[in-house]
Amino acid sequence: GMTLNDSNLAGAVLRQAILLGTTLLDANLAGADLSGAKLERADLQRANLSGADLSSATMAGTMFSGALLEGTNLSEVAAAGAMFKQVRMKDARMLEASVNDASFHQASLVRTSFHHSRFYDVDFSEANLDEALFYHTRLHHSRLVAVAGAGVSFGGSRIDHCDFTHAVLPGSIFGRAEVIQCVFRNAKLNDSDFREARLSGGDFGRATLRGTRFGGATLKTADFRGADLTGARELTAEQLAHAMTDESTTLPNGKPGPYRPGRR
């Protein structure tokens, strides 16, 4: 419960420290070792945590809004109700983390790695995801509305009931992902890769998927009504027959839908 605003703790060894409810506004914790620390309800808004080690820390209700977390190690953290709004997390690692009811609204997550982490009811809306890696990640009931980023990888992930409305994710990878009842309305997914992905339902209304690859993908009742599939590659007649199209769909050959078997 102490107030340590503006403290200079750069490089400090705070391993397994108990910092419950501690206020560290604008503190300098660059390169500090906070591994295993108890940070529940701590307030680290605008703090400098670049290069710090927070692995295995517990941070329920912790405030990081506006903080600098570039190159920070957040692996195996438990972050229920944590706030990461507008953080700068370039090149950070959040591997095998458990995050729920949290917010990364307008965060900069450039090249951040989220391998094997679990996110439930998390808000990533308007975040910058350039080259972020969600490899084998579980995303459940999360908001990715209006996120933007080129080359984002969701390879091998399970993405369940998530909202990608107005997302701009050109060249992104969903290969071998399981995508269940997700919303991609008005999303821009040009030149993305859905090879061997398993799509169960999902709304791609007015989404742009020009040049996207679908080799070996399962498109069970995926709704492409209004979608632009111009130049989509490896999209077979059988796949299209399992998806939903209508006259507002643009088929891979550039012609308007709906797709009908045998139609050229």
Give an overview of the whole structure.
- This protein is mostly loops and 264 residues long.
- It has one helix and eight strands, in the order ββββββββα.
- It is elongated and about 70 Å long.
- The model has no long low-confidence stretch (mean pLDDT 97).
Biggest beta-sheet profile: 8 strands, parallel
Q: Give the helices and strands as they follow along the chain.
A: EEEEEEEEH
**Strand coverage percent:** 5-15%
**Global outline:** elongated
Cα(first) to Cα(last) distance is 70 Å
Mean pLDDT: 97
Number of strands: 8
Determine Rg (CA atoms, Å): 21 Å
The class by helix and strand makeup works out as little secondary structure
Low-confidence stretches: none
User: Spatial order of the strands in the main sheet?
Assistant: 1-2-3-4-5-6-7-8
- The number of distinct helices, counting runs of at least 4 residues, comes to 1
Helix content: under 10%
List keywords for this structure.
8-stranded parallel β-sheet, 1 helix, little secondary structure, 264 residues
Question: Any chance you could write out the topology, listing elements then pairs?
Answer:
Elements: E1 78-80, E2 98-100, E3 118-120, E4 138-140, E5 158-160, E6 178-180, E7 198-200, E8 218-220, H1 237-242
